[in-house]
Amino acid sequence: MKLTEAIHSAKRPLFSFELLPPVKGRGIESLYAAIDPLMEFGPAFIDVTYHREEYVMRERPDGSYNRISIRKRPGTVAICAAIKNKYQVETVPHLICGGFTKDETENALIDLHFLGIENVLALRGDNRKGDKTFVPEKEGNKNSLDLIYQIDNMNKGIYLDLELSNPTPTNFCIGAAAYPEKHIDAPNQQSDLNFLKRKVEAGASFLTTQMFFDTEKYLSFVRKCRDMGIDVPIIPGIKPLTRKSQLYSLPQTFNIDIPEDLCTEVERARNDDEVKEIGIEWCVEQCKRLIAEGAPVLHFYTMGQSDTVKRIASQLF
Questions:
Q1: Are 304 and 34 contacting, i.e. CB atoms less than 8 angstroms apart?
Q2: Which of 67, 175, 204, 315 has its CA 20 to 30 A from that of 270?
Q3: What's the structural domain count of the chain?
Q4: pTM of the model
Q5: Which domain holds residue 179?
Q6: Pick the catalytic residue: 18, 90, 118, 181?
Q7: pLDDT reading at 130 higher than 90
Q8: Residue 4 is inside which H or E element, if any?
Q9: What is the CATH number of the domain that holds 186?
């Protein structure tokens, strides 16, 4: 089922969450262990992320060097198929520009279409480690807008090889990222909103936001989007704080603010166990406000913390 269809037919906010694929060398069992505790809440869909490869040069005994992939989390397409088969839950694979040519992207979309996966999240992806700006592949999409155009073209039966005879159109429900506190590379929020509107006009039919801890910023962002004519579902991305170090690492990594009240409580905590309790309580109150304000979905960034998300979900669903 398309995510937008699930949202429009739901009588209350849906529950969903995002997972990281296991690192190279680990089996899918670790992923199942993260999913199992959350299945009792009936997730409407599960996002599966993809990360750009990183490489190191390792010296051989003869003095030459091997280029070794060290970061790639393999198997996003296969993982989505496995989850759908095992749990009968819709999956939303992330597609990124970084590290992929348009041809490789097209092949991934063909595989997803064959598997009956109907939803995708189109993202630019992160910079390569050490790069100050985003560098696309030579034959790749330069940003998420270009990626959305490619997916939308395939939905219209337009493939890269224009000489294909009677190509089969795909049928993807395309999602895009949204940033209540603006994308880190955007010069200002209005510029970011303008770009977001272009993504919707290009074919994005739902938006998933970056994590936020100030609910008012999400609500204000939704109002601004509606005022600009962006009328697709805007799914709030939610993450509970679990460690004191996140007061500094999350704002630096994701260009977000931690509200002063939350920051004060966390700084007073004696250890990370206390921080986790504070984070859960804050997150539950966030979610209750989001439900009251009509958020279509509560989408959790688990980051390996299924137990924490389970405790929150048990108070809401």
A1: yes
A2: 315
A3: 1
A4: 0.92
A5: 3-313
A6: 18
A7: no
A8: helix 3-9
A9: 3.20.20.220
